Amino acid sequence: MTSTNPTAKDRVVIFDTTLRDGEQCPGATMTFEEKLAVADLLDTMGVDIIEAGYPAASNGDFEAVSEIARRMKNAVVAGLARTAQNDIDRAGEAVRNARRPRIHTFVSTSPVHMKYKLQKSPDEVLAMSIASVTRARNFVDDVEWSAEDGTRTEIDFLCRCVEAVIKAGATTVNIPDTVGYTTPDEYRALFRTVRERVPNSDKAVFSVHCHNDLGMAVANSLAGVEGGARQIECTINGIGERAGNAALEEVVMAMRVRADVYGYETGIDSTMLTRASKLVAAATSFPVQYNKAIVGRNAFAHESGIHQDGMLKHTQTYEIMEPQTVGVTKTSLVMGKHSGRAAFRSKLEEMGYRLSDNQLQDAFARFKDLADRKKVVYDEDIEALVDENIATAHDRVRLVSLTVIAGTRGPQRATLRLDIDGQKVTEEADGNGPVDAVFNAIKALVPHEAVLELYQVHAVTEGTDAQAEVSVRLSSDGRSVTSRGADPDTLVASAKAYLGALNKLIAGTSRMHAQHAAE
Ligand code: KIV
Ligand code: ZN
């Protein structure tokens, strides 16, 4: 096929906002350590800009952005800020130690947002935009300005704002489709118009930021690039506000697989996409839908006889990309209970993990424990184990042991032993079923008001000795958090998942106190 794009292989920069827009969606809260693990992976896989958070939102956000800024080796690190002076100053301070810092400031420009949300006139919004960009430039040379609800903004006003912020020093101009309302043709035309009409438009990079309310976020992002944008804002697994953002893995692979149509390239190492998807799913405990493009577990699975027959004859009959290009390797059998630490370390490296010595030690102990209980340990088992290891590294409440009496003759009874801030405590509780008994025992040891909103079980691999993976979502005081736990025993996995969510709530509020009598 011939290229339809005369400027073949233009570089498009990838701006990942998993840690900001992604983390903003209800239940996707990540701990400090989880954010660092995700940021490290994004940096290694070639993401150009990592939006690490919104520093003025909380001390936790500020600290996470500062630490990510300090450790990223390649990526630009951006902190989000409204136009308020304090927001800009906090963002400036948070990214101060980055090798390549950016402040991303935004304000609503659509009539409905300006009138009802901001209660400001267009002239006031214009003045706020100029002032925020000018202030941000006192901290950094790299300033991005976003016109929130840009796709529902009057074009004349949008052009006036864009011209003014570029004059004030904005180096990137983002026109988001905040409410996922636009269509590809409309969005492509919007970028063409703004770039043509704004006299200094050649002084800034234009950026797309699309939400997925009508399922068009990826198509719209690519259309915006055709209209002249050269930055795509996106998230791993497409997580984000409401229906989410454009999925990073999808925009990257669309440009790569259909390079004949798009003719753009990115700096992303696509073989790390599956790893990134799994890490973000584990950190946020948001499961990836099975049929999700690129990273869903069925994305390369062929079920029907006709398809399987075709695949056996030639893989290109039903596969438009090789699974290896996105990091899907054939499930391989790994070491058993006799495998040593060196083999385990090299297996982890092959799977894309880089663990500290302490993390490795902990993960190896868990692996040995699993290998004792499970006939074969697959890559997926190791992944679940290491991701859980990262997620629970700083938990205050830990599972020590669990025994459950279950069966047709009730009541079901759980005996649970926990380590709470280094003290071991035990409790017995009955329940309406074994899971209920386990959760009641946890509530007795760690009294709390959180409500269980979701309880889901699925298997990590096949077979009756497969590890069960349980997802639990708890909500308390308007915050909801999700966590996952994996174990060959479904009840142990349930306890781990529930405790994981409780730990996130405790870490987030410090208001929930473990009430227990130390033994
Ligand atoms: O969707 C949106 O408009 C945003 C801005 C803050 C860029 O997330
Ligand atoms: Zn957004």
Helix residue percentage: 40-55%
The unreliable regions are: 1-8, 510-519
Structural class: alpha/beta
Strand content: 15-25%
User: What is the typical, i.e. mean, pLDDT?
Assistant: 90
Compute the number of strand runs.
16
**Strand order in the sheet with the most strands:** 2-3-4-5-6-7-8-9
Instruction: Calculate the terminal CA-CA distance, rounded to whole Å.
Output: 73 Å
Which cofactor or ligand species appear? 3-methyl-2-oxobutanoic acid, zinc ion
Form type: globular
Give the biggest sheet: 8 strands, parallel, barrel
Based on CA atoms alone, the radius of gyration comes out at: 25 Å
Q: Give me the oligomer status.
A: single chain
Written description of the protein model:
- There is one protein chain.
- The protein has 519 residues and is an alpha/beta fold.
- The chain contains 18 helices and 16 strands.
- An 8-stranded parallel barrel has the order 2-3-4-5-6-7-8-9, surrounded by 7 helices. A 3-stranded antiparallel β-sheet has the order 11-12-13. Strands 14-15-16 form a 3-stranded antiparallel β-sheet.
- Helix 7 links the parallel strand 6 (143-148) and strand 7 (172-177).
- Helix 2 (32-45) runs antiparallel to helix 12 (273-284), helix 8 runs parallel beside helix 9 (217-226) and helix 12 (273-284) packs across helix 16 (379-392).
- The termini are far apart.
